[in-house]
Amino acid sequence: MLISSALLFGCTTLAGANPLSVESPDGSIRLQFDTQDGVPTYSVVRNGKIILNPSRLGLKLKELPDLTEGFTVKSVERDAHDENWRPVWGEEAEIRDHYNEMRVNLEQKEVAPGRTVAVVFRVFDDGIGFRYEFPRQEALQDFAIMDEVTEFAFDDNHTTWSIPAEGVRFYEALFRELPLDEIGKVSTPVTIRCADGTHMALHEANLTDYAAMNVQAVPGGNTLTASLTPWQSGEKVFVTNVRVSPWRTLIIADNAGDMTLSRIMLNLNEPCAVENAEEFCVPQKYIGVWWCYHMKTATWEAGEHHGATTENVKRYMDFAARNNFGGVLVEGWNHDWATWDFSFTRPYEDFDIAELNRYGRENGVALIGHHETGGKIANYESQMHDGMKLYADNGMHYVKTGYVGDMLDGKELHSSQFGVRHYRNVIETAARYGLAIDNHEPVIPTGLQRTYPNLMTQEGVRGQEWDAWCPEGGNPPSHTVTLPFTRGLAGPMDFTPVTFRFDNPVMPQTHVNTTLAKQLALFVILYSPLQMASDEIENYMANPEPFQFVRDCPTDWEKTLFPEAEIGKYITTARKEKGGDTWYVGSATGEDARTAVINLNFLDPGATYLATIYRDGEGANYDTDPYPVVIEQKEVTSDSILSIPQGRSGGCAIKLAKI
Ligand code: NOJ
Fold first, then answer.
1. Which of 40, 51, 458, 529 could tie 89 with a disulfide, CB 3.0–4.6 Å?
2. Residue 18's pLDDT band (boundaries 50, 70, 90)?
3. Which protein residue's CA is at the shortest distance from atom 3 of ligand 1?
4. Mean of the per-residue pLDDT values of the chain
């Protein structure tokens, strides 16, 4: 429902006295724009509290006068928008897009006569977004951006969580809790907590034909400045046909839970552009011929212990069919894992793709394909159509893509404009072949799934696989209760939870640092519409009672809530299944044992629900005994409050079915 539009409320005014301002619909957030001495700045106040002090805007250009100074305001356009829209899949069935907009048209009369650019601000009740627009004009044709000088001048040296932008491959790092002035250069999202409990997150939305934005702390201050990922040649962005920057976004909320529920980033992406997306972008849980490789019980390459044999995949398909899983991922199906010179059309001789798709269809299980590119973009792009056609011709709808390689084509960073262009090419090509994507080693997500629901999930996270081979001993207990408030803000994560075995015989120093009950909880907590239960099926077969929770749990949601939330300490996530009455709750703690106190006031008043609770058993904790799980049932209502003890790095998973 669109209740207002530019026609009704839009207006263009000639600039009056500076500064200009725009407020959020509820009036709690006010953004002010100024051009004192020709330098554009913006500042943000929320409920009378300064969020951002005057912060610079602008860009440095190659071989042209910079877009940083000498500006006057030519005109201002205002708009207001209030619309509810329904994503193809998501953490909720309906999302409200409600903001006030101010477009400031600027000109540089003296620096570059006649040149105009615009800054567009959107102010929501839960934060702000803004972007640069570069209308094509005589004085500004194609050009190259050398730097963005955009600042975020916070009012204090807040506590932050982020990962370094350099020296980290594919965003696979532990989030560091640091004072803002000590973070150095980091990737976004950056999560920020103020002393009064206000929580913020700085990121970007709709990263299209541009470089990803990192931010850098100004030493000794409270300011972060944008730092775009460069091309090898030094330029950051070549602006040609796409004449707008991504949106720079700042979520502002009273607490960690509300911050995590903000949908600003999705709202700042364009509506769905994929035809018939509902038909093939179908949320699923899946298993895979995969963890066996990490446990070294099978090999990607063909040979005596080859994992991707027709027979072994059928075994996985049988298990999937019996256990309510929609898909089986198969890695190691194609030539040539021995050399990493991949063909995307040539299966190994012991993998019968046609037969497996026939068998899968007969059993209601999708075969999920795999395109590991090794980061060799030229090789992949030359075969991509044929590789995707092979899948489409076999009736397949999902492909996991991978980019293990320090640099794309040996020279460009994954988060560069080069990488961004390639990933978009893959998403759009996949859509044409009716394929949905699980993108590993991606550029950080920025909400593109609204426009391209076939971009169903991505890695770009230090996932569960680190528990299989990380020489420092696996992900620490705090990791999974930090991710929802950090990387999770960027979009779905293919973390691949639900390991039921906690040690690795071939690498004894590694360990899965959770209890088994927490693994179940992570299936709900770590959102992904394509959600993997990653362990070898033998470990599930050996533990059918706790596995029942995973069998039951869906991956597409009507509604999401966070009854408890503290970054790095604990989280309780409650999600209502889409199209049904059942709620699923995942609750987990970090390093410390605690008692989760879960208020069930989100249940329908007057109704009775059967709660099936999977919780840590006596003595369960991550370092000495992760296995004990107690499964119990009780009747509850919206008046009930559950108190559930959790061991160190423990948790609980709850199914709440209406009686
Ligand atoms: C790294 C990915 O994260 C993992 O899931 C995959 O199995 C390997 N690359 C091989 O493609």
1. 529
2. low
3. 440
4. 96
Contacts of 74 (CB under 8 A, 6+ apart): 14, 15, 105, 106, 107, 116
pLDDT at 524: 99
Residue 91 annotated as catalytic = no
| Atom nearest to 441 CA in ligand 1 | 3
Cα–Cα distance between 359 and 365 in angstroms, integer? 8
- Give the SS3 label for residue 16: coil
CATH number at residue 323: 3.20.20.70
**Residue 492, domain member (yes or no):** no
- Which residues form ligand 1's pocket by a CB distance below 6 Å? 331, 372, 402, 404, 440, 459, 465
Residue 19 pLDDT greater than 90, yes or no: no
Domain count, the chain: 2
Do 297 and 244 fall into the same domain? no
Q: Are residues 195 and 47 in the same domain?
A: yes
Percent of the chain having pLDDT more than 90?
Answer: 95
The residue from 241, 267, 293 where one domain ends is 267
Instruction: Give the three-class secondary structure for 392.
Output: helix
pLDDT band, residue 645 (cuts 50/70/90): very high
Is residue 577 in a domain? no
In this predicted structure, the answer to whether residue 532 has a pLDDT above a threshold of 80 is yes
If one residue of 404, 438, 439 were mutated to test the ligand 1 pocket, choosing by the most ligand atoms within 8 A of its CB, it would be 404
Range of the domain at 318: 277-460
Enter the DSSP assignment of 264.
H
Residue type, 557: W
From 91, 204, 465, 558, active-site residue: 465
To test the ligand 1 pocket, which listed residue (331, 340, 399) has its Cβ within 8 A of the most ligand atoms?
A: 331
Q: Are both 302 and 234 inside the same structural domain?
A: no
In the DSSP assignment, the letter for residue 511 is: B
Give, using CA atoms, the residue closest to atom 6 of ligand 1: 402
Q: How far is the CA of 458 from the centre of ligand 1 (A)?
A: 12
Q: Which two tokens stand for residue 461?
A: 């996270």
> Where among 409, 428, 460 does a domain terminate?
460
Q: How close is the Cα of 402 to the center of ligand 1, in Å?
A: 7
Q: State pTM to two decimals.
A: 0.97
Residue 2's pLDDT band (boundaries 50, 70, 90)? Answer: very low
Give the CATH number of the domain where residue 146 resides: 2.70.98.10
Please compute the mean of the pLDDT values over residues 26-52 and round it to a whole number: 97
The protein residue with its alpha carbon nearest to ligand 1, atom 11, reads 372
